Amino acid sequence: MARVGDAVNGAILVAILGYLLCMIAHASGLFSMTIFGQNWARDGFCLSFKQTQFHSHLLCFYIDTFMAVLLLVLVQNKPSPQFRLVRAAGGSTFMHGAAHAALWALEPEGDHSWAETLPSSAHVLGLTCLLAAFYLPFLHWEQWKSRGVPLAVTGIQCLIHGVFSVHLVPPIYLFTYANSVLFLNGLAARMTMDPKEK
């Protein structure tokens, strides 16, 4: 029997896929998605305070880092299982901010992949491996491990996403791609849980 949570997860799944399809249509030039504004259509984000230390990506990094530390301090010395999720949220919150800081540092623009713009094949390989490693802690989480999904299988998925991220996805859309991958995996894990675990 369907539960309310399953319906909500299904609606989130439809929203993610719809947004992803709109982004692909926008990036491929099928139509210009200006519903979020001209700046968003150009940069892939609504960015403010460019050329300052208060750039939107940097503000996200500052705030996420502060919140990650705060979360970890609040759950320190609290062995109760209820705090396990809060403890895990600290790392993912920091990684979210770090990804924004990387976008600020790399200043992606245009519709060319990193594979087309990086100076050498060594840079391409290094970035592919780095991004594959970025996906691993997010995708090989307890819900998959508890179902017996081997690390090697998750590693292959991470490598595929690393290759896609460097060779196929224009950098200004990489955040959207990564968010979609992470949310879709999280939803799939939750939706395949035994009802007793939910």
- Annotation, overall tally of beta strands: 0
What is the average of the pLDDT values?
Answer: 82
Strand composition percent: under 5%
The helix tally amounts to 9
* SSE order: HHHHHHHHH
Q: What is the SS-derived class? A: mainly alpha
Distance between the termini: 13 Å
Q: Give the low-confidence spans.
A: none
> Tell me about the biggest sheet?
none
Helix content: 55-70%
Description:
With 198 residues, this protein is mostly helical. Helices cover 69% and strands 0% of the residues. The chain has nine helices and no strands. The longest helix has 24 residues.
Write the layout of secondary structure elements.
Elements (H helix, E strand, L loop, with lengths): L3 H24 L10 H6 L12 H20 L8 H23 L7 H4 L3 H19 L2 H5 L4 H17 L6 H18 L7
Observed structural traits:
single chain, 198 residues, mainly alpha, 0% strand
